[in-house]
Amino acid sequence: MSFLKFKRDFQKYGLEKARSYELILHWLNNRLTRSQFLLLSGILVGCTAGMAGVLLKTLVHNIHYFITHKVHFEDQILFYIVFPFLGIVLTTSIVLTLFKGQDRKGIGAILYEIAQNSSVVSSVKMYSQIIQSAITVGLGGSAGLESPIAVTGSAIGSNYAQTYRLTYKERTLLLAAGATAGIASAFNAPIAGIMFAFEILLTGVVFTDFIPLVVAAVCGSLLSRILLQEDILFRFYTREPFNYKNLPYYLILGIVTGLYARYFVVISQKVEHFIKGLQLSRLRKAMFGGAVLSLLCVLFPPLFGEGYDTVKAFTNGDIHLIIENSFFKYFKIEEWTTIIFLILVCLLKAFATSFTIFSGGNGGNFAPSLFAGGTVGYLFAIICQHLGFNDVPVTNLVLVGMAGTMSGVLYAPLTAIFLIAESSFGYDLFIPLMIVSIIAYLIAKWFSPISPELKFLADQGKIFTHRHDKNLLFSLHTEDFIDKYSQTIYEDAPIEELFEFVKNGNKNIFAIIDNTKKLKGILTLDDIRPYLFTDYSSISIIQIMKNPPALIYPENKPLEILQIFDETMAWNLPVVNSNNEFIGFISKSSILTGYRELLKEYSD
Hints:
The protein is mostly helical. Helices cover 64% and strands 4% of the residues. The strands form two sheets. Strands 1-6-5 form a three-stranded antiparallel sheet. It is elongated. It starts with a helix and ends with a helix. Residues 5-9 and 463-468 have low confidence and may be disordered. It is found in: Membrane. This is H(+)/Cl(-) exchange transporter ClcA.
């Protein structure tokens, strides 16, 4: 079909309001093979998500530059007091006024949409995350931009797939491609972006069409390299060659970063629980969290913003510049001063990040885990030097410390390994990166088998963490399978009325209810059949009805209901509300049919 003919027939495709470029893409979707159109889609989604990442990084960098450039610490104190507080309060106000209080954020938001919403992401998230995180992090929030960039990219990919009526499988693939491009543009690390998609977003999903992920990552990374200035990029050039004699350092650092990652996760959970328990409005919680964050930034300026400049200072040996920009400059700078300063920064970073995110700001744990890991690595290195060890690979310990902590916090060792390797051109550091990341990851898994993001969703019954087919089952909704037209009969009705239902109806199961519509029992055709050809004048419905094997409630998830069906060996069960009022019957076959249809959509 020529494009002109397609355009003339656009009403046939429901594209009355489509823009010209959308018409072209719809036409290409009809002309190209599935693989060819997915490749084109990967490029378009990758470029768009990459541009979003570049825009956000540039915006925040310029805000930071405006606030802190060539300003002495004494003058910065006012900035540290005002701006972090203002960032969280402004973000919360915008969420409440412009986005109607909808502030689902972080990697968990993407996992929720994949598992619970058939990979359909609201179009609002294509720009809401950029606005919120730019304000939060740009004004000093102690969080990262990578998670908001990933959510933005996933929304771009999902909405692109919805526009061109792609299947669930293709929608999920392009959602992941958008997130991949966002991460690749944030770090100029395409392989790390791909690892992020496979390791975190697509756990348990097997894709034969992974080319769109690759091209999206390449597009995002290229745009980042072309458009971003060198000082914005996450880049580390100074490092020492790998020496196998330094393996003991890396083994110990793996344990240290694993334990620190667990500390970081526990503090985050406790702060989240504390803030949720406050009997305050959302705006007042934002004011409280902003005040705590401002205080921490005044006392320890490295907690301001993402903190990548501080980590670069570690690798360049400029720790004295960091201390001179804090109250610690009024102490005589000695080794113990530096060690105490870094210990406090490590311990308080978890609090600063948690108060930023959970009190109302928008950001993620990517940058905080990298910052904290670099600080832990540098602290470990100078302690070793202080103990008299020679030739300590300081820069390498900073780099692998970043990978170790990120691995333990996000449960993503491969993403951490490739991210640091690509960002430092340190491919010869693969061995220490693998050692530290895997040790930290195993320690984190020993404390908790699944990551905090997944655990939160799993505890809510919104995602299953082992098999993707059960995640598909979680995307089904119980109310869709309840037969609202089930036949009911009152318990005091004459038996003849029941037999009339059997004669004229098309149901094989009946609910027995009282005058208040509360369920009293059930009857099936098998229960009624023995009385059809006998004298039933002396029989009542109450005499022959039976109790159901189990009751189903609307809040039960499809997976739970299937387990109940298996335990009771039943095929139909009644659904009642909390007052035992009958709602309808639900059948095992209807749930299985719904699951098969969804699986077919995913497999096509």
